[in-house]
Amino acid sequence: MSAIVNLPPPMLNASRFRAAHNADWDRLEVLIGRIEKRSVRALSDDDLLALPLLYRSALSSLSVARETSLDRALIDYLEQLCARAYFQIYGVSDSTWRDLGRFFTQSWPGAIASLWRETLVMLFLTVAGALAAYVLVRSDPSWYFGMIPESMSGGRDPSASAETLRATLYGTKDEGLGLFASFLFGHNAQIAIFAFALGFAFVVPTALLILYNGLMLGAMIAVFASKGLGPNFIAWLAIHGTTELFAIMLAGAAGMRIGTAIAFPGRRERMVALVEAGRISAIAVAGVVVMLAIAAILEGVGRQVVQADATRLGIGVAMLVGWLSYYYGIGRRYAQRSPA
Fold this sequence. Notes:
Elements lengths: L1 H5 L3 H28 L7 H23 L4 H19 L5 H19 L1 H24 L10 H4 L8 H9 L4 H23 L6 H23 L3 H34 L6 H35 L4 H22 L10
Helix pairs in contact: 2-3, 2-4, 3-4, 5-12, 5-13, 6-10, 6-11, 9-10, 9-11, 9-12, 10-11, 11-12, 11-13
């Protein structure tokens, strides 16, 4: 009788074993199922860190189950779970084309949508700078020379005649226009890069740079507006400017996300907050590079081929609507909220 008491039933041992580890197995199964249905990008940072630990724990459980001869159903379950986990963690990665597809359909728009608050701040700084410069230059043209470098103005200053300014907008053979447009693109690309990189310095340099970019925009508009060419200049700028200026604001938003993560990590450790912000910002800036390349194409074609103001403006508005729909339509579904 005592021998029967000292031999616990195998099913009882399996039940206890399952009860002790079932929570980890269930979580691993949920994570693997999420990867299989969508992708590894569907996992949060905490889930990504937990995934290999849960996998090793499941392997250990499988080893114990085999050595102690627990019930066959439990062993089969653990074998299947570990096989699925192994395939997702160490299996063959997706093709390059599939990765690119996910970048353009999920990662890139999702990252931009995640930065919507920071983007609104950059938009406010740009508009505020443009309005301030416009008012100052219209009231006193000498302000212009303190905002626009001579290398960028190229004679497009308050002293230029209306005919000279008009020629820069519609002259297809104007070499000065080509140099000005090329300089403008290079200048804006540099601003985008610096706006992102300077975010590490607690956002302040990024904010000042975006504000200064708005000042230059407003000063240039004021010069053309003073000669009755304000709408014409806006149409010329819109064909590539809606993409280019939007890209600069997004680069500033990415820099702001990093800077605020360093300054205000919230309840998270500062390094954890920085890693998360850096991952989202890096994807966003990769998209900014694509936007700047598209803006360069629009700029080159727009200044030489398209001469009608309405067409120029229409292309610019269409591009802006397209970007907004792409980022905040498609991207909203893949946006990641920043935890407090």
